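Hi U.,

Before I forget, here's the chain from the pilot set. I'm dumping it here mostly so it's searchable later in email.
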Amino acid sequence: MPLLEPDPEALRPGTARDPAPDRVTDRSAGGTPEPLRSDLIALLGADKVLWKISDLVRYASDASPYRFLPRVVLVPEDLDDVSAILSYAHGKNRSVVFRAAGTSLNGQAQGEDILVDVRRHWTGVEVLDDGARARILPGTTVMRANATLARFGRLLGPDPASAIACTLGGVVANNASGMTAGTTRNSYRTLASLTFVLPSGTVVDTADPSADEELAHAEPELCAGLMELKAEIEADAELTARIRAKYTIKNTNGYRLDAFLDGATPVPILRGLMVGSEGTFGFISEVVFDTLPLDRRISSALLFFPSLTAAAAAVPRFNEAGAIAVELMDGNTLRASVSVPGVPADWAALPRETTALLVEFRAADEAGQAAFERAADAVVAGLDLVRPAASVTNAFTRDAGTIAGYWKARKAFVTAVGGSRPSGTTLITEDFAVPPARLADACAALLELQSRHGFDAAVAGHAAHGNLHFLLAFDAAKPADVARYDAFMQEFCALVVDRFDGSLKAEHATGRNIAPFLEREWGPRATELMWRTKQVIDPAGVLAPRIVLDRDPRAHLRGLKTIPKVEAVADPCIECGFCEPTCPSEDLTTTPRQRIVLRREMMRQTDGSPVEAGLLDAYGYDAVDTCAGDSTCKLACPVGIDTGAMMKGFRHRRHTPREERIAAFTAKNFRAVEASARLAVAAADTVGDRVGDAPLQAVTRLARKAVRPDLVPEWLPQIPGAAARRLPDTERVGASAVYYPACVNRIFAGPHDGDAGPGLSLAEAVVAVSGRAGKPVWIPEDVVGTCCATIWHSKGYDAGNRIMANRIAEAAWGWTAGGTLPLVVDASSCTLGIAEEVVPYLTDDNRALHRELTVVDSLVWAAEELLPHLTVFRTAGSAVLHPTCSMEHLGDVGQLRALAEACAKDVVVPDDAGCCAFAGDRGMLHKELTDSATAKEAAEVDRRPYDAYLSANRMCEIGMERATGHPYRSALIELEHATRPTLP
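Structure:
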């Protein structure tokens, strides 16, 4: 055991607590039982079988209000693995649930036996026919697919609000639609073909001309059963008419019986049935979509009406004018959304009856946009709009920032209600559809029903399609609250079906909470046909039992999850999973959602239970050590949760008093530490040049084993040599800004300039290019020994963080003459540290000084202050960029691109670009984290050569060089080269 191995007990919840009714029981503490574990390891290999209790718990939750513990989690790599799993399940009488993103809202991604993760190894987009079609693997997110298609001026039809995280396999399996898809642009209408694996293991490619012939040979009984059902449905004129009528509005409740009407033979019928089947008919291994034009000319307006009735009456007029989206927000929603940053504060005083419509038009060109705007203005001229707040304009705009603000307000519905719900309550996100002409009545009836049952009354939705959304929050640990939810659901289903003849699920799919009410909507005849369809396709009932079809009238109350209180920073988590695609450790250990899910399970347990012990044993590495701490999860989270901050807090809890004292000592004596670090790097570089990197790696690996892997970095061949001891000479008189070279750039040298050896340092480049633009910078003589404090902040060393945070704030205030000059920082992570992250650790006096500072990232300085005054003399043919996570936080990615576009003719940001997870020194502490985090981006970068590989943070550049084998360097060094009048 390493000398300074942290004690898992340090992370044990310190509160006295009673066991939760839905806690994982002690008999599951050992994880997957035998012989199931050994059988599957022998079948697939150990690396594809997740069996520890921590693995099972982290996969037990999704975005729904339900929670079911799987017996085992499998991670197949290909169709052979999937077929083997299905064959095993058949032979052993077990059930299988496929899970990708886990963003489904009704428990579709949860199973009680074998759960199969089909996200990790199932990503990829192949563009076909110059973008007219796209072949996509099921674990690919909608946002990722659209990023690739955007280069061809195309996009997918489905546009769910969870596009950042939801995957195409889940989108098709749920027939998820979104703001604009309606009934004409959804998966059912835009899917060209798909490949799927039936429960028997038979693989079907619906695009294969011989697919029907091959299926008839492999599955004669299935084919006969489907054709029998088709004939029976078509022979019933009343039923046929009813099926057609049900799909004139959005409907994802139950199976798509219209597939029997639209398909002439078994394969086309199966193609239709797979859409919206929620994983109960087979595994979708590949989809081919017909794409749609990406109309980039956008005009939007947020229009305010005196009442729901008035707003609803305007919806068909905008539909007729060609609006692509008409989104409704009632008064309660508008007022609640002011808690979200960016939403106008004066909405808090809006009258209760006020209702808003977000209306958007999209066109391919100026002429089309102008025509839409004329049509929109004509509609607006005939409306009785109100201006109940100063921020209200009721005018259409083309401004991208304003439009983004409108959509932020629209999406604040979940953010505001979900984030502000009482601690300990479960959040349910429901949706339904009614004929658009009944929209106003449905809104009013829903609000009355919510109020009567004691739920917050608020409604929003896709008004253009009669599709409404609402949220319910209740405590699943309290029987009275569960009974209240049940009573609401009984009345809600009766309301939608009996009064409005609507769909109980418009786009979220049936799932566990509407399965008991399926017959209420469809009637006994159609419902029995759905049961028979399931029997024909999956006679053994292997796939996803009880998810679409369930005869238990109380099935919607089974498996409801409690939400025990956890650390304040994470307590509002709604477990939606939006954070997961941004997380560097997503494919290595855990995600932000899973870190919180595991913590909540600890809180459900009694103190010292076997389950808690198992979770604590894994949590140190799986959650704390392998968190990059980049906090990009906060940017993706609809309620703004910073799980990285929680992990830094846990790192602090694991520190001994001695470790904290040592960290504080290094902060107090950082000048000496900095000099020592530079000397150590220089010495290591010399040794490496003489004997190679292997001895250095061997020595550091031994030290890591002896001391602690999370404290001792491993030497990597990509580590550069030492920076020069002296920084460039500059003058304070006449300086336009104070230039702060980050300590990482004072310790490590810049990249080599090809075979010419060490190139221009970043400090030299910044000084040169600033002077060249007529805006000279000054480097203070006493920058050595100062730091942005991120070194201590990222590791949870609070005392050291506080010392350095106050030192840099005081120094920066003095250097900038009390904030008179801007402080230009040459590493984006350090800019973020000085501008934002030091603030909570400052004294009151230093916080006042800090408020006077203007901290500017060097990218912004160069793009906005220098570039307009520079002449570019030479450009590279191509450049690929690595935007860092700190740039995302600062909003600097656009400036990185602007600099690159000045220096290169062809500039590419990889679609899979993300946090490299090098995170200062974390890439040397846990290189497997950076290897995993950069794998997809590196594969994309390596598909073609580039003339320049650019970023703006030295450690990230090292991480990307390690991942790709290409020398990354700062965009400011490239700018200096491009604008230098003469080259040596």
